[in-house]
Design a protein that fits this description.
By secondary structure, this protein is α+β, with helices and mostly antiparallel strands.
């Protein structure tokens, strides 16, 4: 996982809208870190927020549009106004219809907001969480302990919520491979934000699907920050935590929930399915060089990363092959098949903005279908034909 690696392409217009959306998204994420963007009323504002407000006002004046008069009004824009209705100039297909930077009900940053924030070069490392994972990887390399790295990643994937007692005792628990990484858990797990607390019950509720904390809404409902969870129809309640349980509830920081836990759930599920089919799978090889190293009996070795982005254009801009070690024959980025149902042009838009031919974009269903075919037929890797731009590889998918 290298979400902080920003790849530039000449086809990407640095128009006022691109620069503005990066700035506003970064501001909304910064306000979210400080508490709740919807309560942005105190001054002085964070530097990123003031800069975004100034940029938005200037852009509106240049385009003769009514600007927001304050930061709280800019927050309202981010929550209520779809990005394709902002008075800005953007490259084609950059924002999906009706997409917003903040959830309209909870005023929390959306996944798209984080995608725009990591597209900004000066904030990519901070809002991708890559710095934390680099520290973990470096320590595990020095100790020659890849099992500890995988154990750390699995913990973030399976347990984005811990009690303070669990945080303190897990590293020394029987069977734990965390080794010396226990102290790093305190850098990535923080006290659960008050916005997730059910004040009447004095408890937090986790999501049954992604295991993160659900956010109560003013209408008495529950909202999950992971798009795939609330798109599934209804949010499913998981474990409930008392506010004081185990010394207090700790939540994995949002960048790692977004860029490690969410894709990690998909990678773990696919790894199990591919193993059942007959492939040899290694999760997070080379201390996280990429998501999965997949080998088939016929010989091909695939480097696989799972991606589930709102904007195929922003994802396409980041298209770049992973490091060559551990070695592989072919690199794939895997998206949920539902992305193509929701956005039939997803693959075409991704291809339009990508700066390199690798990785190939496929769906999880395409990967599994091809894995069954390769294992059953023992088909030679050399017989697999490359894909035309915008299409799944012929003969492979």
């Amino acid at each position: 996982m290298n979400p902080d690696r920003t790849v530039r392409t000449a086809r990407w217009s640095e128009a006022d809208g691109v620069l503005l959306l990066r700035s506003v998204a970064t501001a909304m994420v910064r306000l979210g870190e400080a508490g709740d963007p919807g309560t942005a009323s105190a001054v002085p504002y964070p530097e990123e927020a003031q800069r975004a407000l100034n940029a938005t006002v200037l852009t509106c004046l240049l385009l003769k549009a009514r600007p927001p008069e304050s930061l709280p009004e800019l927050v309202e824009w981010a929550a209520r106004r779809p990005l394709d209705q902002w008075p800005v100039t953007l490259p084609p297909d950059v924002v999906p219809p009706e997409a917003r930077l903040l959830d309209e009900v909870t005023r929390q940053p959306t996944q798209l907001c984080y995608e725009w924030a990591v597209d900004a070069e000066d904030s990519a490392a901070r809002y991708s969480g890559q710095h934390h994972m680099s520290v973990v990887a470096q320590r595990c390399r020095e100790e020659k302990y890849p099992e500890a790295y995988r154990a750390f990643r699995l913990l973030l994937v399976r347990r984005p919520v811990l009690t303070h007692r669990e945080l303190a005792t897990l590293p020394a628990a029987a069977g734990s491979d965390l080794g010396s990484l226990g102290d790093l858990l305190y850098d990535v797990y923080q006290p659960a934000p008050a916005g997730h607390l059910d004040r009447e019950r004095r408890s937090y509720v986790s999501c049954k699907r992604c295991h993160g904390l659900l956010h109560p809404t003013t209408g008495g409902g529950l909202w999950c920050e992971q798009r795939r969870c609330h798109e599934a129809g209804t949010v499913r309640r998981g474990r409930e935590y008392r506010a004081d349980e185990g010394g207090g509830v700790q939540l994995l920081i949002r960048p790692l929930r977004q860029w490690v836990s969410a894709p990690g759930l998909m990678e773990k599920r696919l790894a199990d399915q591919l193993t059942d089919i007959g492939a040899e799978v290694e999760l997070w090889p080379g201390f996280g060089a990429y998501g999965m190293r997949v080998r088939f009996p016929s010989g091909p070795t695939l480097a696989v990363d799972c991606k589930d982005w709102t904007s195929p254009a922003l994802l396409g801009r980041r298209a770049a092959p992973p490091p060559p070690d551990p070695p592989y024959d072919r690199c794939l980025w895997v998206i949920p098949a539902g992305r193509l149902r929701d956005h039939p042009d997803f693959r075409a838009v991704f291809e339009r903005y990508r700066p390199s031919a690798s990785p190939e974009l496929v769906t999880d269903r395409e990967l599994l279908r091809t894995a069954r075919r390769l294992v059953a037929a023992g088909r030679p890797y050399e017989d697999i034909n490359p894909a035309a731009p915008g299409e799944a590889p012929e003969g492979l998918f």
